[in-house]
Design brief:
The complex is a heterodimer of chains A (167) and B (275). In chain A, 29% of the residues lie in helices and 15% in strands. Chain A has a 5-stranded mixed sheet with strand order 2-1-5-3-4, with helices on both faces. Chain A contains 5 helices and 5 strands; from the N terminus they run E-E-H-E-E-E-H-H-H-H. Chain B has helices spanning 16-25, 38-43, 79-84, 86-91, 93-99, 105-110, 113-119, 126-133, 150-153, 221-228, 233-238, 254-271, and strands spanning 9-12, 29-32, 51-54, 64-66, 70-74, 136-141, 144-149, 154-156, 159-160, 167-174, 181-186, 196-201, 207-211, 218-219. Chain B has a 5-stranded antiparallel sheet. A 4-stranded antiparallel sheet of chain B has the order 11-12-13-14, with helices on both faces.
Amino acid sequence: MSTIETHTTRVTVTVNGREVSEEVEPRTLLVHFLREQARLTGTHVGCDTSNCGACTVLIDDEAAKSCTVLAVQANGHKVTTVEGVGNGNGGFSPVQEGFRQEHGLQCGYCTPGMIMACTALLAENPQPNEHQIREALEGNLCRCTGYETIVRAVQWAATNGGAGEWA
Amino acid sequence: MGMIPARFDYRQAGSVAEALQLLASCDDAKLLAGGHSLVPLMKMRLVSPSTLIDISGIAELQGITDAGSALRVGALTRHRVVERSQVVAQHVPLLAHVAGLVGDPQVRNRGTIGGSLVHGDPAADLPSVALATGATMVVTGSGGERRIAASDFFVDFLETAVGPDEILTAIEFPKRTGAGFGYEKFVRRSMDYAIVGVAVQAGEQPGIALVNMGSVPRRAEAASQALASGAGVDAVAALAADGTNPPEDLNASADYRRHLASVLTKRALLAAGYR
C-alpha cells in the first residue's frame, strides 16, 4: 500500500487583528482556513463556486469570495470576517444594526457575506444611491428577502454611522 | 465539506525570470495570479496541476503605463484597478467600461486582466476588448519577448498562443482617445457570463468583437470590414454573426445567438456614436 505524501506550508494571516499561523496543505481554501484553523464559523460556505457571496470577507479591506482564494494567497495579509466588524463592545456595527432595523434577513445564511459586502461598499462610498447599492451587491445572492430590505438596511447604515471600524 | 482542489506543490516566484525557471523545471505546472479562473477549474477537478507557481507578488507585472501611442497594462493588474484608472478611461475607455462589468465586485477585486485573457474563455468579457481595439499581447519565454496580435492569440477553447514555458507579461492597447465605443452584454442575471456580448470600438481603425459566439473569442471580421468601409448600422449589424459557429445550451439556441449578435451589434454601434 502506498502512502500519500502530504506537503504542508505555513500560512500566517492577521484575522480580525489576531495573528493566526498554521501549517496547512497549499490546497486549503481561505474559507476553510477561517472556519477550521481560525475557528471562526461566521463565514459561510454557500455555493462553493464564487457565485453566491456567502463566503465574502475583506482581504486588506477589499471584499473577496473566500471560497475562491487559497489560504496561501492570504499569507501575510489582513483578513476581516463578520466576527471582526462589531462595535468592539459585543454590539453591532452600523451595517449589522441596519440589517436588524430593516429586516435585512430571514434565514440568515447569506447575511455574513452581505454584511461584509455592504461594509466594503460603505467604506468606499459612504453615501451610495440605490443603484450603486444594487450594483455593489450583485455578487451576493439572497433567496429570502428579494433584496428590498437589504437595500434599506444599507441606507439605514449610511445615515447611522456608515461602515464602522475594524482592526 | 465542499469542493477542494487535488493536491499540488506551491511555489512562489519573485520575478519573471524566476517564474520562467520554475516553469521549465516543473512538469505540468500552472501559474497562479488572482486565481479567479484557475481555482474554480481546480475545485471542479477539471485541471489538477502538480505545481502552482504563484506570480501574484511580481511587481514588474503590475500597473498601467503610458507608452506613447498605446497603454501598456501589466498582466497582473486587477480588474478593479483597470476599471478605476483615469488614464484607461481617457485613452481606452472601452477597456475601463468592460473591466467594470466583469463578474461582480468581489471577483474584480481579485481577478487580473492577464489571467482572464490567458484563460481564453469565449464567454469572458475582456478578450472582446483586446480584439475590438487591436491590442498586442506581450509574452515572455526563455528566448525573450514576443508580441502576438490579439487576433492570433485565441487558438481554441480555453487555449491561447502562450506556450507552456511562457508568461503573458503585458497587454498593449492602442490609444483610442476620444473615439466612441459600445459594449452590449446580454445576461439573465447581472453577474452571469454573457449569453452573447458585442464590443465595438469606433475611430480610424474600428473593430467589432463577439463574446460567446463560438469556441474562441473572435472578431466579427465581415462586420468590422463593412464598418471600416463606411457601411450603415443596419448593414453592419446584419453581418455580425457571419462565419460564426455559436454554441447551443439551455440559455440559447445557435440561431437565437446569431439573432442576438446582430441586435446587440446594432445597439453597440449606436452607443459608439454610429448612425
